[in-house]
Structures are given as C-alpha cells and as structure tokens.
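Lecture 7 notes: from sequence to structure.

We start with a single chain of 299 residues. Read the sequence below before looking at the structure.
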Amino acid sequence: MKWRCVAFQTITICAFWILSPASAAEQPPAAETGTDLPTVEELLSKAEASIKTIKDYTGFMDKQERYVDEMDHLHLEKTSIKFSRPFKVYIKFLNVYNGREAIFVQGWNDNEVRVHNGTFPDITVNLDPYGDTALEGNHHPVTHFGLENTIRISAKNLRKALKRGDGEFKVSSGVFNGRPVWKIETKLPKGGYVTTAKDDETLWDIAKRTGQDMYLIMYTNRDKFDEPDDPDEGDKVFIPRYYGGGSEMLLDKENYMPVKATTFDWKGRLYESYSYSKMKYNVGLTSKDFDPNNKQYDF
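Now the structure, written as tokens:
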C-alpha cells in the first residue's frame, strides 16, 4: 500500500491506492492530491447537513458487535430496514433470528417495541426498548437506531478529540460496495475518569448523567458489571472519555451518508461495526410500512 499525505496541524490527511489485490467490497480508486482532500470537520458538517434532507430510507444493514459475556466471539446480523421521521423503525432479520420482525414508532404502543420471534413459538410481544429482552444481542436500544444517530455519535466523538488535540486522524479516498467513499480513520487514547454510583442508579442512569454510551461503560467495566442494573451504591465506575480506542467511518461521496461505521476498543479489537447497502432515500414511506397489520409482514 502506498500513501500520499499532507500534514494538517495534528491531522494527517492521506490519499491511497492498493498495489496488491484488495477485496471486492472495498477497492480504492486512483489517488487524489492532498489539496483535493476534505478535512474531518468538513466531512462531518456535510454529513450532518445531508441527513437533515432525508425524510425516510430503506435498505440493508449488517451488524457486528462484541459482547461482555462473549469476548472471543463476534456476532454478524443481516437485516432489512426501514426508517421514517420523526422516528419510525421497521427491522426484519435475515440470518440470525431469521424471520424475526420488529417495529418501533415513537409515541405509539406505549413507546414499546412490537416484535415477533419468527420461529416457533412465534408469538407477538411488546417490549421495553431498554429492557433485558429487547437489548439481548444489542449494544444499542432501538431508540438509538438509524443513520442520524450514527452521524451524531461519530461527530460528537471526533470533535471532542479534535478540540482537545488528542489522537490521530486520517482522511482518505476509496470505494466500498462499488460506491466512491471518503474514509475517516481515528486512533484515540483511553482517557476518562471515575464516578461513584448513587443509590438505585443503573448503568443507564450513569450513562445519562455522564453523557457516555451505556454499553460502552459496561464494556469498559466488564470486570465488575455484566448487566445494566448491577451497580450498587458506592461502586466506582470508569467513564471513558471517547467512544472507543479507534474508528473508521465511510461516507458516500455523492450524498455523504454513512455506508460503514466501525469502532475498535483500546486493544484494537473490533467493538462494533455497521454497514449499509442498497440504500434508497426519500422513497415516500407511509404509516403502512410501520403497521404490524401490514399483510406483507408476519406479525
């Protein structure tokens, strides 16, 4: 691999090309000159502006996550997704939990997730999105679903590091699933602080109080906690400053939407990864697309 780089304060911005064979999914095009490359802030701002123009979308999402109780195993889930503003979600599982469907509409169904298993016994239930059952096999609740939250988490994390002058940044140009993309790579230190759990505080409460993600807090404190309600009053809880020890974010060059977002822990292991394919935007989804009585669904 050869790189052409231009220094930009604490950021290194690079264009790259591969001389050895690369995967079909991610093959970079010819290199661009350093002056053609955007900054991290320019890319984040364009992604934030672009997502505001999108009312709904459909597509496919592949998810990989590492869990505190299975550190040596990565789960890969393939799903078909629909999303519409203000906050409506439909998910159909295509491999793990094959046939399972879930619908969440903010303000509907007492703000619970309507889900059916897809296999025997195939019953339909309503679940608290923050409860153990709904969160099983998930880093994030369905209330954090979607491209906008992906952009929000990444932008908050990267801007914090840029403001503090922490870490290493690299912007490059490539191709993912046949689409030209911008790639933002980061490496971040494991800074943070310790807080004390208050009476009856769960990790959800601590996450809200500290502004950090709940599962990430549990992950970095996995020697103490493996459930959100594990903390006792007086327990010391480490709060990481950054969302992981490194990340890679791929933005489509045409619309600046994320096509892949990957986070690594501070030992360089994959913590979570979400990739999006065959995405269609502003397709005109209706309430029927988020209705469990839709005859195309199996609720």
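The longest helix spans residues 147-164. Keep this in mind for problem set 3.
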